[in-house]
Design goal:
By secondary structure, this protein is mainly alpha-helical. The chain folds into 2 domains: 190 residues, no CATH class; 52 residues, no CATH class. It has 10 helices and 5 strands, in the order αβαβααααβαββααα. The strands form 2 sheets. The chain has a 3-stranded mixed β-sheet with strand order 3-4-5. A two-stranded parallel sheet has the order 1-2. A hairpin with a 2-residue loop joins strand 4 and strand 5. Helix 3 packs across helix 6. The chain starts with a helix and ends with a helix.
């Protein structure tokens, strides 16, 4: 559901391997009218699709009123974050989505955008649930597991017993992590050595906390070399330099 060719192509490659492994059909999940990505899926031999739509005017009003009712029933933001439907943590997904698209670090009151994001999340959830009830899926390939609709799709898959395969890494060198349990929902794709973690915790814990705090502080100050995408840009620029030298 991420409108980025890099994400889409790597996910299709993972999906094609799963189709061969499980000897099953593959579906593409797209936003309605996303013809470019539909053509990419078709070029890999995937011909069946599920489309998430914005629905018609009356359905949008229905979900907005439902969102209004849900938010009105929450006395605090903590209550809202705990809101879930069939173990899918809708409130948390909406809160994360709000922080991402507003740039606000935290909020304790219900901004008007909360209503819009919640109505969107509800629309996505019920459309996904309808298709999960209709088809028997055994796997879902998804790199973006946060925000809307990513978090809704990801959580709904796991709560329905569908394994999620998620890409880790960038470019042509990436790995895949399999999620098969709702207890793993918030775990990162990368795995770290417990032995190494315990060694650092037992020997230089205070120093490690200090270094980590400094790193996070510099990221919030937007210092380029500490940015989340710095490694990607450094790698891309180094490749450009190599091409120039040639």
């Amino acid at each position: 559901m991420v409108n980025h060719f890099g994400y889409t192509i790597s996910e299709i490659i993972i999906g094609k391997n799963l189709i061969e492994m499980f000897e099953c059909e593959g579906f593409g999940l797209l936003r309605k009218y996303d013809l470019r990505l539909k053509l990419i899926f078709e070029s890999f031999g995937i011909k069946k699709f599920i489309f998430l739509s914005d629905l018609n005017f009356f359905m949008r009003i229905k979900y907005f009123l439902k969102a209004y009712s849900i938010i009105k029933s929450c006395k605090t933001m903590d209550d809202f974050i705990k809101f879930s439907i069939n173990d899918v943590k809708i409130g948390r997904a909406v809160y994360d989505n709000f922080l991402r698209f507003t740039g606000i670090g935290t909020i304790n009151h219900f901004n008007h955008k909360m209503y819009f994001f919640l109505s969107e999340a509800l629309s996505n959830y019920y459309q996904i649930k309808k298709n999960f009830d209709k088809f028997e899926f055994i796997a879902c390939v998804q790199s973006e597991r946060q925000f809307i609709p990513g978090s809704i799709i990801y959580q709904t898959s796991l709560t329905n017993g569908i394994n999620v395969y998620s890409r880790s890494g960038y470019g042509n060198a990436f790995s895949v992590r399999k999620y098969s349990d709702t207890r793993e929902i918030w775990k990162p794709r990368e795995r770290y050595s417990k032995k190494l973690y315990d060694e650092i915790s037992n020997s230089i814990k205070e120093k490690a906390v200090e270094i980590g705090g400094t790193y996070i502080e510099k990221r919030f100050k937007c210092i380029p070399e500490y940015d989340a995408y710095n490694e990607y840009f450094v790698r891309r620029n180094s490749l450009k330099e190599k091409k120039k030298k040639k």
